[in-house]
Every structure is written in C-alpha cells, then in structure tokens.
Amino acid sequence: MRSDLTLSLHLDASVLEQKQVKIPRLCAPIRSLRWQDASDAELKFAPEPNEWVIRWKDVANAGQVIEIMFDAPPLLPQDCPTPAATGDGTLLLHAYQAATHGEKLRFEPQWYKNTVGYWTMPGDYATWKLRLDQPGTYSVAILQGCGNGQGGSDVLLSLRTGDQVTAELPFQIVETGHFQNFRWNHLGHITLSDAGDFELRIQPQKIAKNATCDIRAVSLVRQAQP
Predict the structure, then answer these.
(1) How far apart are CA 84 and CA 32, in angstroms?
(2) Residue 154 near residue 209 (C-beta atoms within 8 A)
(3) DSSP assignment string, 170-190
(4) Of 57, 89, 151, 155, which is least packed with CB atoms within 10 Å of its CB?
C-alpha cells in the first residue's frame, strides 16, 4: 500500500520467517524506516543497484507491516519525470533521479546518505535525463563527498543527445574528509548551441584510491548573456 510519501509493506507469515524482503529500487530518498506497530524493533537496510533489501532478526518482536517514509514520491525509475530547468535557467539534479550503470554503483537512499555512491569501479557511471529550454553557457557544479586520502580521481562529465556528445567537462574530485561530508565542487562551464532533451553522464576516468566519491546533486545554472 502506498500514499504520496509513505510505502507500507504488509508481510505474510512466510516472508516474516525468511527475515528479509526485497523491493525494487525507487527514485526517492528515505526519511524513516520502521515497523508500524513495533518502532523499536531493529530493521537493517541494504540498497543494491536494482533492488533494496530489508532484513530483521527477531520475528517474535517484529510487526507485520514495515512503514517507509520518503522525502519525495516513491516512483519506479521508468516513471520518473524528466527534470527541466526553471524560468531563470537553473536546474538541480538530485541523486534519486539518477540512473546507475555498471557493477557496483547505486543510489543510496538512507537519510544520512541520499547519494549516488559505492563508486569503486572505473567502468561504472551515472546518468540523468534533463531538459534545457534555452541554449547558452551553463555553470556546472556537483555536491560531492570524498573520504580522507581518497581525493584526486579524474572524472568526466558529458552532455549527450542520443549517441552524440554535445559537451564535455573533465574535473577532479575534491577530498572533503568523509564520503557523506558533502560540499559543492564548481567544475567550470559548458556551452550549448541548442536547447532540448539531454543525458548528463558522469564517469570516472581514473580512480585515485579505493573509491571515486559520493554525489548528492548536480547543478546547472545558465549564465547571463553579455
């Protein structure tokens, strides 16, 4: 059962005995996760690239309904609307709107993460669909976190229309002290000659240490014309 921001999982006896339930990955950050009638009983949450796993230990102390509250409507990836720039040419892309590709990369929806993370494989990449109604020059920044000693990975941001690369922006990841210590990293500017629908892709070119970074958001701001 689902309301606008709440998903209730009604579990039968066989699922309770398995001590875990799997649901498809959703496009929304999680605010809270609890048993509806036993809020103190522990639930463990593990996001995988294409599904989310919820586990528990003690069936006797568990309820029958798991309640998940979100900060945005929990939609399946194929149902997510394409983000579009506002009237002033500003566009903010959230981690929950990203599609992840590859072996390890995933959206981590927990309230203390809310990020694209587990970026340990150089072939993994994230994409966002977007719509820009005006051509021009855009300032680009990412809200990123990176642990101590993990900074310096070389990454490429590109905008694409189909198989054609419209713009590219190489950059380096900045160390922030922790992967969930998020700070804005201004990457530079891209110039587009046409408006339209695009795919924004972020992919590591060289991972400096163990992992690239976590990314919570991408910002594009259209610059004033001279």
Answers:
(1) 28
(2) no
(3) EEEPPP-BEEEEEEEEEEEEE
(4) 57
Task: Give the pLDDT score at 143.
Answer: 99
User: What Cα–Cα distance (Å) separates residue 14 from each residue in 56, 71, 89?
Assistant: 14, 30, 52
Residue numbers of the chain with a pLDDT score lower than 50: none
Number of H helices, E strands in the chain: 1, 17
| The domain defined by 81-222 carries CATH number 2.60.120.260 | yes
pTM: 0.93
Of 50, 68, 57, 75, nearest to 10 by C-alpha is: 68
d(CA 16, CA 7): 18
Report whether 159 contacts 219 (CB < 8 A). Answer: no
Read off φ and ψ for residue 78, nearest 5 degrees. -70, -15
Q: What is the pLDDT of residue 14?
A: 87
Amino acid present at 58: D
- Could you tell me the two tokens for 31? 């605010």
89 torsion bin: left (phi>0), alpha (psi -120 to 50), beta (else): left
Contact indicator for 138, 220 with CB cutoff of 8 Å: yes
